[in-house]
Design goal:
The protein has seven helices and no strands. It is mainly α and 218 residues long.
Length: 218
């Protein structure tokens, strides 16, 4: 999927955005007084990550495209955040820093592309498992929203202490069960894609060996 022309065009744009982001971090670190050398190093990391993303966009990375996307996502997401923290600014300052938020958004897009790259290797096998896993996890998300809003505490608080304890224990078991079942389905979906890549690499290596033997025989 990554090697398709539209996706390579998207990756080219994202590589430029990452390079601009890393360059901005580096320049601001040098302008600041005193100079923020640690922040500068994080800016360099983001720039280097943009180079790898550019190589992927140019088709120079033939294997491991998904892990490359994940590594670049880690650099572009964590680098700007650590640059802010290394400058002595509080973590809450990230909310008002559009450049840092752009880095986090870029990381999210790259993670999504990495997931799609793996799932699209055998979509007829991966996607059903993935969607089943998401469907299983949806009730867990609903429970978390209700718990955060205080609805569960209010409901269980109407009974006695024993009722409240039993309710929380039941919800804990249910939550763990949903997380395990949904997580298993999602992990299995990605494992199918990983196995497909390994099988393709093995068949290609076998074909290369046959071609080599044919050339020697000729």
């Amino acid at each position: 999927m990554v090697q398709s022309r539209p996706i390579r065009g998207v990756l080219t744009v994202l590589a430029c955005v990452a390079a601009l982001l890393g360059g901005r971090i580096a320049v601001m670190a040098l302008i600041d007084q005193p100079r923020q050398w640690i922040a500068l190093s994080f800016g360099v990391v983001v720039v280097v990550a943009s180079v790898f993303l550019g190589m992927l966009a140019l088709g120079l990375v033939r294997r491991g495209q998904a892990i490359t996307l994940l590594c670049v996502a880690g650099a572009t997401g964590v680098g700007p955040v650590f640059a802010v923290l290394s400058a002595g600014r509080p973590l809450g300052a990230i909310r008002g820093d559009w450049w840092t938020l752009a880095g986090l958004g870029l990381a999210g897009v790259l993670v999504l592309l990495a997931a799609l790259e793996v799932l699209m290797r055998r979509p007829w096998q991966s996607w059903p498992r993935f969607l089943i896993g998401v469907g299983i996890l949806l009730p867990l998300g609903v429970l978390l929203v209700l718990a955060r809003g205080g609805a569960i505490a209010t409901l269980l608080g109407k009974g006695g202490m024993g009722f409240e304890f039993a309710g929380y224990a039941l919800l804990l078991v249910l939550g763990i069960g949903l997380l395990a079942a949904g997580g298993h389905q999602i992990i299995s979906a990605f494992q199918i894609g990983v196995r497909a890549m390994d099988e393709t690499a093995g068949s290609n290596a076998g074909q290369e060996g046959i071609d080599t033997q044919d050339r020697k025989g000729a």
